[in-house]
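Hi there,

I know you've been waiting on this one. I reran it after we fixed the sequence typo, so this is the corrected version. Both the input and the resulting structure follow.
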Amino acid sequence: MTIPDFQSLMRPVLMSLADGVTRRSRDVKDAMAEEFALSDEERAQMLPSGRQRTMDNRVGWALTYLRQAGLVDQPSRGRVVINEVGRQALTAYPHRIDMKALEAYPAYLEFRDRTRERAAPETHLPEDSVSENPSATPSDLLALAVATNRAAVEGEVLKSALALSPTGFEDLVIALLGKMGYGRAGTVERTSASGDAGVDGIISQDPLGLDRIYVQAKRYAEDRTIDRPRIHEFAGALLGKQGDRGVFITTSRFTSGAVHEAERINARIELIDGRRLAELLVEYEVGVQTEETVTLYRLDEDYFESL
């Protein structure tokens, strides 16, 4: 039997979790190899990079899509469990769950939109048809794969940030700012533990601490917004410290009133919402690891013409 594609694996993977038991991702991958009666050769088949087995990769992507659609939860590292939405999906789709079926779930649509936004400028092809377009080049397909991976990891890293304690989230923000280069000539430190009301961190841009940026970090659920009063309070904290620059970072989002308030007040306050935070964490490799690199080759015509 040939190794199934990741869409064909979605429903079997979800079905393997139907009993509600939290399982290791590794066990799910092994179960799928048994489910599809793969031969020893098929089980051992590797991706072209040689870094991962093909079947493991495809089950992994099936799990990624199910998580992004909100059908599966990841309660801890390397472990997955079905949720109520996933149970309902098994009933609603008794024969097959694929990307088309996942369009019924808002979380998946958001994930797909993030992927399209990243892929379309790189491919110069219609946003919704890169993978199916016969004119798509290897570079187009690679751009789509990279965009899909980035969108998935950004979603997962934001969920991980939401699971942190308030102080853990503040530490994450401070680590990110450090990786971004802030405080390189001075320091980046968390202050909330010392009771510095209204400010969670201070970036000293110079060794003497004369040039400072103040940080507010709020770990809020994605459906909870930051409104105008919170920005006003932060501006007041800046004023109390004779500061005129701040960064307000949250896992949720800002209301239009909050954005307007940040633009109105006599201080420069940058607003970083959950989506932008996730992008920055991945871009600056905070809380993520490089899994695989790919090299595309092209013919060097100049070399052959010189012979």
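Quick highlight: The CA atoms of residues 89 and 172 lie 35 Å apart.

Best,
R. S.
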